[in-house]
Design a protein that fits this description.
By secondary structure, the protein is α+β, with helices and mostly antiparallel strands. It contains 27 helices and 21 strands. The chain has three domains: 5-397, no CATH class; 415-539, no CATH class; 601-751, Galactose-binding domain-like (Jelly Rolls). The strands form six sheets. Strands 10, 12, 13, 16, 19 and 21 form a six-stranded antiparallel beta sheet that branches. Strands 11, 14, 15, 17, 18 and 20 form a six-stranded antiparallel beta sheet that branches. The mean pLDDT is 91.
Length: 752
């Protein structure tokens, strides 16, 4: 892995500039936070130990935190994925997103069950998720106060609970206090597990740890880390057995059920987001941005200092195990696309340790160091200054700003996706007319419409999820279904264009505020979209009637390919076929083979397969590749787009290791032209460097290229004038740029 140090320097400077600008605007807030920390220092030094004051302070922290969280209220698009699973469970369809498809497109099993339970009692699912999240947020503040008291060396300190107040004021924790996600539930469970372990209640500690794991599998790191800390500390065997009991009694049966129910060892989301390698740069950016944007840059070293000082205690061992391992895990996976989401779970531990570091410094008479550390604490109360609302920075977003909650009853989310979904609902209000839609917005869109959704990003598609990541990018959004996969899934409408320009304009459907595209022309669907007089979808018949073949062979081939794959694959329309056969045949001087256009089995024609790449009789191919690889494949290569239209094995110049960078020259053994026409199927890029050629004495006499699509289309060569001649076929790929490959299948000779 190479690091672009110049780019890194520019990013650091930009982050610093944004942060400094934000501080200048909120200097009053910073002063208020400093005053609050100063009051805490004074109370600690003076040993103000009024229990009623402490309880009142915790209540105040809860109320202040809830008020701050409510002012930031939102609900994440991802939350609606779980809500749709919960709704289908309540309605008797099982834990599925699309009815009849068992795909584990969520990672928060226990959280989904909790929300479903609230829904079964008659509560609105979205409202229930927000209320539960707020409740977990408030309870976490209480648990932090309990944890802080538990760590006091001379009995409970009854001064103001600084760690609890910092958590209540922190932008990340408060932001995810209304997200509808499992984040706050997991944070509560992880913090409570530690508090119970320190109290010697090992079964409850284990139960909380397993609850966090069943709400998000990544949090097994915390459960295992706490168990390791207990083991290294010489915890009694009985205590360890009680800690492990929830794993055996709850997690093992749950895991066995979900494995048998969904068919995979891990959730589909794991495969969709897994890159099989280290995403170090992006992971580093994520942690760095979180540290600065959330004000953790100063308090984190203070917390580590306390962890080292307490290394012989359970909390110190736990922190020194869990924090490095979890941060290393985040670096490996590239962090997250949501600012702070994966960091929130660490905040209770960090804040509690930092609070006790301040106590330690005061006890040791290191007042200046204590004041400096307290000042660092103050920055945790500042809002995010780094990422602009509704924008991304370094592939990370303050997701809250995209999905602000404008109304709680009824639930209203400020998002174009809400409007889009409701507009589509109005278009397909009649039962039995809902389309199958391919989109990357499977949360709000899927929940609002209830349509069958094909997930472009692979969270709900095991085929896409199990593909390797071709290029590292935004975490969780690095795998993407191709047009071939969208067509293969039987999609009616897609928010991703299926065909390249200029053909995509004919497939575009104007739906507000975002467009859709039709993978296949469906008259019934077009009529439905245009029923109210609004011309949302273009009728394709006028295009067919007026289509004049291009004089350029490659462009004419792509016109034929588009008409075949988009229109004639789903519409018989013999009149249009006859007209196009005449026009295309004349343009290509295909007097003999005209009947083959748009017709796989024309009357009066016989075929002989030259090569189908499926074994048995066929041509002998001489192959030269760079680097060396077998061009004949029985399936799509792991990191290749989804090819559609092949018939079993096919030839591909997409390299197993180098992909589009690979080069190929593949020449067949000589054979005699014994028919009037030769057909084959081809997909891939469009370039003079990407050619299937018919060679006579080594000279190309016919050629064809792709159309920048993984949807294979048929090519037809009229070879009546070559009857009786010895020729060769050649597949040539000298292209290394985007779309730098060809896929070819089923060469056939046709005779009248």
């Amino acid at each position: 892995m190479t690091v672009n140090w110049a780019r890194t320097r520019d990013v650091v400077l930009e982050v610093g500039t944004r942060y400094a600008h934000g501080l200048s605007e909120d200097i009053v807030l910073l002063i208020a936070a400093c005053v609050a920390t100063g009051v805490w220092l004074w109370m600690t030094v003076r040993r103000v130990e009024n229990k009623a004051l402490r309880h009142a302070s915790v209540v105040l922290a809860c109320l202040g935190g809830l008020a701050w969280a409510w002012s930031l209220r939102w609900i994440a698009d991802d939350a609606f994925i779980s809500l749709r699973y919960a709704r289908n469970l309540i309605e008797g369809h099982g834990l599925v997103y699309n009815v009849g498809e068992r795909v584990e497109g969520y990672t928060n099993f226990l959280w989904t069950l909790l929300v479903a339970a609230a829904g079964a009692l008659g509560f609105d699912l979205a409202q229930a998720s927000i209320v539960l999240t707020l409740a977990c947020f408030a309870l976490t503040i209480v648990v932090i106060a309990m944890l802080s008291a538990r760590l006091s060396e001379a009995g409970p300190r009854v001064s103001f609970p600084l760690a609890a107040a910092a958590f209540a004021a922190n932008y990340a924790s408060s932001s995810f206090g209304t997200s509808g996600l499992e984040t706050m539930f997991c944070t509560l469970a992880v913090a409570f597990a530690l508090e119970r372990a320190l109290a010697g209640s090992h079964f409850l500690a284990g139960l909380a740890g397993i609850a966090a794991t069943m709400a998000h599998p990544d949090h097994a790191l915390f459960y295992a880390g706490l168990g390791a800390a207990m083991l290294l500390g010489g915890a009694p065997g009985a205590g360890l057995l009680r800690y492990a009991a929830p794993f055996v009694l709850l997690f093992v049966p749950y895991f066995a059920w979900r494995w048998s129910y969904y068919g995979f060892f891990f959730p589909n989301t794991f495969y969709a987001k897994s890159g099989g390698g280290w995403h170090v740069q992006q992971g580093g950016r994520y942690l760095g941005l979180c540290a600065v944007a959330l004000g953790l840059w100063g308090v984190f070293p203070v917390a580590l200092y306390e962890a080292v000082k307490r290394r012989r205690e359970l909390v110190g061992r736990y922190a020194l195990i869990v924090i490095p391992v979890y941060l290393l895990y985040l670096i490996k996976v590239g962090g997250d696309f949501m600012l702070g989401r994966f960091v929130v779970v660490l905040l209770p531990l960090i804040f509690v340790l930092a609070e006790h570091a301040l106590r330690r410094l005061l006890r040791e008479g290191r007042s200046k160091s204590a004041v400096a550390a307290a000042l660092a604490f103050s920055f945790c109360a500042l809002p995010n200054y780094i990422i602009e609302p509704g924008r991304q920075f370094q592939r990370i977003a303050d997701e809250r700003t995209f999905y602000e909650l404008t109304s709680f009853s009824p639930i209203e989310v400020r998002s174009g996706y809400t409007t889009w979904a409701r507009n589509l609902n109005a278009l397909f209000a009649e039962p039995g007319e809902t389309p199958r839609v391919a989109t990357g917005v499977v949360g709000i869109f899927g929940y609002e419409t209830g349509f069958h959704v094909v997930d472009i990003w692979g969270l709900l598609d095991p085929v896409v999820a199990h593909k390797p990541i071709r290029r590292r990018g935004r975490p969780g959004h690095e795998k993407r279904g191709s047009p071939g996969r969208i067509v293969q899934a039987g999609t009616d409408l897609s928010d991703m264009s299926i065909y390249p320009p200029p053909f995509e304009t004919w497939t575009k459907v104007r739906t507000k505020p975002f467009p859709l595209y039709m993978p296949r022309y469906d008259r019934r669907l077009v009529d439905r979209l245009n029923a109210d007089g609004q011309k949302r979808a273009r009728a394709f018949e006028p295009y067919i009637a007026k289509l004049e073949p291009s004089p350029v062979p490659a462009a004419r081939d792509c016109q034929h390919w588009f008409a075949e794959t988009y229109y004639f694959s789903s519409n018989e329309d013999r009149g249009a076929k006859a007209g196009l056969q005449e026009r295309f045949g004349a343009a290509a001087r295909m007097a003999e083979s005209r009947a083959l256009l748009f017709d796989d089995a024309p009357t009066g024609w016989t075929r002989r397969t030259l090569e189908a790449y499926d074994g048995g009789s066929g041509l002998v191919w001489k192959q030269e590749t760079s680097p060396s690889f077998d061009a004949v494949t029985r399936g799509i290569r792991p990191d290749q787009r989804f090819v559609f239209g092949q018939q079993g094995a096919f030839a591909s110049s997409f390299g197993p290791e180098t992909g589009e960078q690979a080069r190929l020259t593949m020449t067949s053994s000589p054979f005699e032209i014994a028919g009037d026409a030769l057909t084959f199927r081809i997909g891939g890029g469009r370039s003079d460097s990407l050619q299937v050629e018919l060679l006579e004495d080594g000279v190309p006499v016919r050629s064809a290229t792709g159309c920048e699509s993984d949807l294979m289309g048929r090519r037809i060569w009229d070879v009546a004038d070559l009857r009786g001649q010895l020729v060769e076929l050649s597949i040539r790929d000298d292209e290394t740029g985007p779309w730098g490959y060809l896929v070819v299948d089923t060469f056939e000779q046709w005779s009248r």
